[in-house]
């Protein structure tokens, strides 16, 4: 088909078609922008709603914890825990004297007697005084008490040994020698209250 229109009319028609196409693209772009704006607005509103919901949940949880007096309960638990630790420390240093004295008596060599003992709470041991018939027996007291076979002390050190010569009128003195020992309890001995459940 031969187009006999003048060039000016042809140009007008061409621009008219382009305007219609551009108008369609502008409308489509506007619709896309409106859709994106709607999605962003909806997302922000939903996010704000979730934030408000979490704030309410946190407030409810705090109210529940305050109602249950959590802080007061935690303080009571701490107090009970402190009391148990104190009881363990006290029982850990309590010595069962009936068993201890019997075992020390069995470990004393012939010709010696236990004269006294003094608990030293700062070192976990005790000071012992014993009387003996002679210097050799007094030394043997230290050897016997520090022996691991007796399971009493980890070590026993001699502090002093002194022997006196009895006078004529005191010939009846059987134990003229005195020995003082400083002994440290064995860690797993059976004479501390807290070790009573342990096997020897």
Largest sheet: 4 strands, antiparallel
- Number of beta strands: 4
Write down the CATH class of the domain at 95-195. Alpha Beta
Q: Kindly, what is the distance between the CA atoms of the first and last residues, rounded to a whole number of angstroms?
A: 121 Å
CATH architectural name of the domain at 95-195:
2-Layer Sandwich
**What is the share of helical residues?**
40-55%
H/E element sequence: HHHEEHEE
Rg to the nearest angstrom? 49 Å
Classify the fold: give the CATH topology of the domain at 95-195: Gyrase A, domain 2
> Which descriptor suits the 3D outline?
rod-shaped
Q: What portion of the residues fall into strands of 2 or more residues?
A: 15-25%
Q: For this structure, what is the CATH homologous superfamily of the domain at 95-195?
A: General secretion pathway protein M, EpsM
Q: What's the average pLDDT?
A: 79
Name the strands of the widest sheet in spatial order: 1-2-4-3
Contiguous helical run count: 4
Q: Which stretches are low in confidence, meaning pLDDT under 50 for 5 or more residues running?
A: 193-200
* Category from helices, strands and their pairing: alpha+beta
Oligomeric grouping of the chains: single chain
